[in-house]
Hints:
Elements: E1 2-4, H1 41-47, H2 50-58, E2 64-65, H3 66-73, H4 77-89, E3 93-95, E4 99-100, E5 106-107, E6 109-112, H5 122-137, E7 145-147, H6 157-172, E8 183-185
Antiparallel strand pairs: 1-7, 1-8, 2-6, 3-6, 4-5
Helix pairs in contact: 1-5, 2-5, 3-4
Amino acid sequence: MMGENAPEAHDGDRDPGPVAAGAGADLPATASRYEGRVATDAEAKALASSLRLRILRLTLDEALTNKEIAEALERNPASVLHHVRTLLEVGFLRAEPVRRGPRGAREIPYRATGKAWHLEAPQALAGSTIEAFLSEIASVPPEQRDLARLRINGSDLTEFKERLWALVNEFHERPRNPEAPHSIFIAMHPDTSTPRRNP
């Protein structure tokens, strides 16, 4: 499990943003972070992009225009607009009322809806969540990263998952406070560092 002092930029999306990369999909509801239905093909495709996950996190606490999103991601506004439209089409983003920009131009701000948190799409999120996490934590000074690795007994796995996801969901449901947010990245997988011995 890893925690970092990264800027709130997915799907926490009160989603992915990522809080987890497919963990818990094979568990009963009480032991999983998933709370809703399986994602449609279009929804899963939208979540399979680390850039789109970062857009959802950027717009989690504040509505941003396409230009503001592009500037935050250091990307071309035209290419970012394609991703924004994809997220709009599947309901992961919503358009806020039109506002006037600094020079009087009409601007459309976008805000994450939180829908992605309630979808099960482990295969789509498996790679994009990790890529989004690596992109975000790269800008965090090493002394502000709180990282840990842990190996647990296979016999404790079900209990660990049940307690972990209960805690994750509890904090997810708390009212949002956009001041000094922290990001949490969680990954669980079969251990691959144990020497394989012949019987």
